Amino acid sequence: MEQLIIRGGKPLKGEVTISGSKNAALPIITASLLAPGVHQITNVPELRDVATMGRLIGHMGGLTGYREGIMTLDTGRLRTPEAPYEMVKTMRASVLVLGPLVARFGKARVSLPGGCAIGGRPIDQHIKGLEKMGAKITLESGYVIARARQLKGTKIYFDMATVTGTENIMMAATLAKGTTILENSAREPEVKDLADCLISMGAKIKGAGESVVEITGVDSLIPIANYSVIPDRIETGTFMAIAGATGGDIVIKNCRINHLDAVVMKLKDAGLRFDETKKGLRVIGPKRPQAGSITTLPYPGFPTDMQAQFMALMTIAGGTSIIHESIFENRFMHVAELRRMGADISIDGGTAAVKGVERLTGAPVMATDLRASASLIVAALCAKGESTIQRIYHLDRGYERIDDKLRKLGADVKRVME
Ligand code: EPU
Fold first, then answer.
1. Is any ligand 1 atom within 6 A of the Cβ of residue 74?
2. Which one from 116, 197, 255, 382 is the annotated catalytic residue?
3. Dist. CA 46 → ligand 1 center (Å)
4. I want to staple 88 with a disulfide (CB 3.0 to 4.6 A). Which of 74, 94, 336, 389 is the partner?
5. d(CA 415, CA 6)
């Protein structure tokens, strides 16, 4: 297994280009299941999760290709509308094939995802939505089997704003008979990006990115023609945290700062400076960040996917920060690892109190999930001495060549075999 060796303590300086968004690319790839033909999607990041989604579509009989950010998919001759356990267990986002498959083929067999490192993560809202649209759902041997001759438009209220739940039902509704109204929908930019892609395929969607979304079903959709995925806001936020933690000066290119309002506000409070320049967004880290408190919330609140990286920054801040995780019940796996680097963090349920220390020290640590890994990178880059981050396959699921990008900013990072 590969690991990263990082010698910290250097302020990172230079330019970094943000890749396409993982969490926008994945549903957009599954949208290709809605229309037979050859699809082309651009600005697709080269990530393990993207490759897994490509393999899943290959398993169904689709043909996929990837070169330099351009993904092509031929979904003309799909034979097997199913997502097997072996794939779903490695990537929960596989569940995003459920809505498109039922809508186009009238049936789908998708393995139920099990629990995951950050929480139970049920998919009851996806199932409830499809049932309300007339699908018959059964659970057999760990699989969700959905059948519907023709899905029907209806009104659906989500019990909580679920990102992939909203995406699944929105995709299903594009080919349903009549109008579907989704209430309490997730408002994340990735949901809006998927809707924009679906609209480019001929779907009729109003209000995506807002709480109430109205989708009027059409008879058929056309293949995706060169749709470009939005930049990754979480990768952007991660590099902001890196600039903050290392006292760096980084120009972030290909990012959309308006997707990160809550993060930018909290980072400004912590002492980071932001300057929109012609080249990109310049982020300047302070000598020492100031403590600040956050609660993770659905968009436009502070994203749970930035909680771990923000916490890593707060470990060296002046003062005590209170970090409340309200989306997932077990998203503090990074705390034990950060403590190994000298962080002073106590946890009470979903709340962490982080008492800033002057300096972290390098240590061998273990990545436990994607964003936890990113937080260890933030910590290792500002720590004194050497850190070894093990199990970086988590990182490669969601960050495109992060070690190359860090090296270009002057970081001392090596990727080696254990
Ligand atoms: N929930 C339910 N029932 C459902 C669906 C969700 O109880 O049917 C709960 C979840 O357990 C959680 C909350 O609702 O407590 C929100 O979960 P959501 O469904 O929004 O999460 P998701 O769609 O499974 C996406 C991202 C995650 C990100 C969350 C929250 C993708 C592929 N994944 O997951 O990304 O953390 O939204 O913003 O879009 C990551 O990239 O590292 C990652 C985990």
1. no
2. 116
3. 22
4. 94
5. 9
Beta bridge partners of 346: 353
Q: Is the distance from CB of 311 to CB of 324 less than 8 angstroms?
A: no
In the numeric block, which tokens belong to residue 70?
Answer: 């351009």
Token pair recorded at residue 346: 């106590």
Q: Say if 2-18+231-417 and 22-228 have the same CATH topology.
A: yes
pLDDT at residue 29 in the model: 98
Ligand 1 centroid – CA 165 distance (Å): 8
How far does the centroid of ligand 1 lie from the alpha carbon of residue 156, in Å? 18
Q: What is the pLDDT of residues 245-294, one digit of tens each?
A: 999 999 999 999 999 999 999 999 999 999 999 999 999 999 999 999 99
Residue 79 is predicted with a pLDDT of 92
Q: Where are the domains of the chain?
A: 2-18+231-417, 22-228
* pLDDT classification of 115: cutoffs 50, 70, 90: low
312: Cα within 13 Å, side-chain hemisphere:
34
Angle at 404 between CA 361 and CA 366, to 5 degrees: 40
Q: How far apart are CA 403 and CA 48, in angstroms?
A: 15
Region 22-228: CATH code: 3.65.10.10
116 is catalytic: yes
| CA-to-CA separations, 63 to 20, 33, 39, 193, 239, in angstroms, rounded | 22, 11, 10, 24, 35
* Interval 208-218 mean pLDDT: 98
- Cβ neighbours of residue 340 under 8 Å, at least 6 residues apart? 363, 364, 365
Report residue 123: phi and psi, to 5°. -125, 30
pTM for the whole structure: 0.98
For ligand 1, say whether the CB of 187 is within 6 Å of any of its atoms. Answer: no
Q: Which of 26, 97, 162 most suits a substitution to test ligand 1, by most atoms within 8 Å of the C-beta? A: 162
Read off the tokens for 362: 């390098």
Identify the architecture of domain 2-18+231-417 in CATH: Alpha-beta prism (3.65)
In this structure, are strands 82-83 and 107-111 parallel, antiparallel, or unpaired? parallel
